[in-house]
Structures are given as C-alpha cells and as structure tokens.
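ok, trying the design again with the full structure, not the truncated one.
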C-alpha cells in the first residue's frame, strides 16, 4: 500500500482513542483549512502543467513535516474509503481522487490533500480541550507556507475557493458529538436552534447528510465570509459548552428511571452477544446505546473499546476483513464477530 502501513486499518486512529473530560459528549474536534495559490487556476480548470507545478511546490513544503505521502490513485477505492471512514480525508476525495496527493502523519491526527478540489486541504483533529492550540499550530504552518507561496484572497471576501460556501475565513471548525439522551428526550431542537444562531450546521459524521435519529452528530461552522478563525473557535466552543450541558442534564434525568435505561442498554448488549448478523443500518444505534451504557456505568466496558468499534464497524473497514470479496451477508457477519470480540463477549460465553 505504497508507503502507508496496512496495519493501521486493524484498529481505530490513535488520536480517536484519546479521552478527556468532554469526550463522553464531544468525541473530537476538527479544524480544516483550505488554501489556493495565487496566480493559478482552481483545480478543476487547471492544465496538467499547472497542476504539477502547484503539486510540486506544496508537497515539497509539506514533506518537511512528519508526513507519509502517496498519490490518491495509488490507493485502492476501498483503502481511500477506509481513510474517509477514519476522517483522514473527505468522502469526496475518496470517491473522486483525481490526480491528488495525500499526506498523513503517523497517528493520523494531521493530514493534507493537494490538488483535489482545493490546491491545499489541511486537517487537524484533537480533543475539544486542545482544539484552540491545534488550530493555531495549523494556521502557523499555513502562514509559514505563505512566505513562499502567496494565497489567493479577495479584500472583501477573504480566502478564495472554487466553492462559494468555502470562501472567507479559510478554515472551518467542527465537533463530533454523541447525543443519545438529547434525541430520546426531544431536546435536540434546542441544540439545533443554538447551532443556527451561531451559523453552525449539523451533518452526518461521514457523508454530509443528516438523519434526525442518528445520535452521532457533526456540527461545523458554515458562515465563513467576514469571519476569522478566532470568531469561529469562540462560536464552536460556546456551542460545545451548551451541547454538553443539555446532553448531561438529559442523561441525569434518564438515570432517574434507571430500570428503563438499564433495560435498553442490556438489550443492546444481549443483541450483540447472540446476533449472527449486524447490518450497517442498525449498527450505529446499537453502538450508541452501548456507549451510553458505558458512560453511565451500566456496563463495564472501556469507552475506547466502543469508540474503536465505531471505526472498525464502518462498511469499508468491515469489508476489508472479509476474505471472499464484498459479500453483504459476510460483511454483516464479520461486523457481529468484531463487536463480540471487542466487547470480550466470546470469553464470557465460553
């Protein structure tokens, strides 16, 4: 697999398993910066010569950091989708790699894509508590690059992009939240209203759309023109504080009727214990219930074990574990086997 190690797909990214005071609700925070080099066409309108010139100058600079690099096309479609499931590259890049280059550091907490939709797409992830520091380091790296390569900007708009929605601050900031109690208790409307007041949208953690019943929700800054990174950091931080307050209050109220909550969690645990097949459509709901049970102390399972299943149970990751090709039934069987193994259920039943 070029100079990327295939071993990394046998577990979740190292950074995703790190825990802090907020990870019971805010599972991680992410900053994504986009830049385009002044004087060159946007990627979709580039000549081959322009693309190679921009790619060369940006990749050469980034190689000075601690990155592995490869062309996106040298990865198989399944490998690209696994990186998207790990939030290392975007879903769009996985599906439409073009002639882009992908760069990833050792623990996958930092990555970059050169010459896909933007000349440069850079991402950093962390716990909520480290978001400000990691974002500032990302911006410092981009400022250092600008000493050699001037970025395309407009005095009234800010940083330019082929996508009007991405123009402006040159960075978007997101948080991935687990909100089972807020959804069960019909408090999500309050969270939605607060997010809208900050110009923050909510989406599916992977592909962008959103199912109102999905307890895993990604909130991302969307109103970028006329904004700066400090504004966006302040907005997402205040939203995160309110989300944590609402979700924890809802969990406390659920705990007052503990028998109902315990029954829900133990039913999910029992399903995983004996199910031969777990389909993708039911996987996240089961996982969410188990995660809530672990946070509330109903089941004695380390949180990082459940979070690891969140990545390994995604479709491409599970399909990669099946030897006979991407057979849907075998994938669903493998997902059930993986969950029993991670929860230690096989040992309990022996």
């Amino acid at each position: 697999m070029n100079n990327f190690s295939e071993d990394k797909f046998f577990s979740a990214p190292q950074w995703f398993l790190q825990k802090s005071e907020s990870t019971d609700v805010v599972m991680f925070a992410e900053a994504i910066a986009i830049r385009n080099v002044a004087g060159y066409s946007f990627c979709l309108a580039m000549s081959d010569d322009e693309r190679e010139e921009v790619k060369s100058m940006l990749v050469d600079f980034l190689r000075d950091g601690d990155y592995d690099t490869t062309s996106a096309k040298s990865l198989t479609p399944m490998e690209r989708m696994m990186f998207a499931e790990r939030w290392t590259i975007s879903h769009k890049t996985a599906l439409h790699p073009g002639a882009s280059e992908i760069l990833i550091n050792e623990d996958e907490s930092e990555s970059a894509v050169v010459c896909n939709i933007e000349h440069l797409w850079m991402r950093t992830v962390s716990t909520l508590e480290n978001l400000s520091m990691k974002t500032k380091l990302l911006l410092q790296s981009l400022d250092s690059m600008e000493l050699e390569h001037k970025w395309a900007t407009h005095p009234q708009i800010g940083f330019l992009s082929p996508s009007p929605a991405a123009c402006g601050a040159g960075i978007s900031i997101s948080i991935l939240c687990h909100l089972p109690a807020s959804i069960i208790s019909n408090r999500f409307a309050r969270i939605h209203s607060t997010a809208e007041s900050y110009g923050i949208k909510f989406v599916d953690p992977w592909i962008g759309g959103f199912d109102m019943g999905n307890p895993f929700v990604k909130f991302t800054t969307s109103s970028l023109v006329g904004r700066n990174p400090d504004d966006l950091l302040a907005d997402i931080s205040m939203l995160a504080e309110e989300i944590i307050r609402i979700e924890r209050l809802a969990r406390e109220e659920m705990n007052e009727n503990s028998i109902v909550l315990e029954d829900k969690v133990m039913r999910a645990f029992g399903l995983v214990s004996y199910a031969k097949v777990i389909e993708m459509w039911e996987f996240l709901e089961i996982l969410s219930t188990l995660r809530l049970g672990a946070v509330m102390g109903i089941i004695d399972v380390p949180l990082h074990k459940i979070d690891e299943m969140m990545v390994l149970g995604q479709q491409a990751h599970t399909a990669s574990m099946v030897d006979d090709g991407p057979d849907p039934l075998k994938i669903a069987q493998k997902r059930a086997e993986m969950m029993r193994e991670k929860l230690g259920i096989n040992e309990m039943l022996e």
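Keeping the full-length input from now on. The mean pLDDT is 92.
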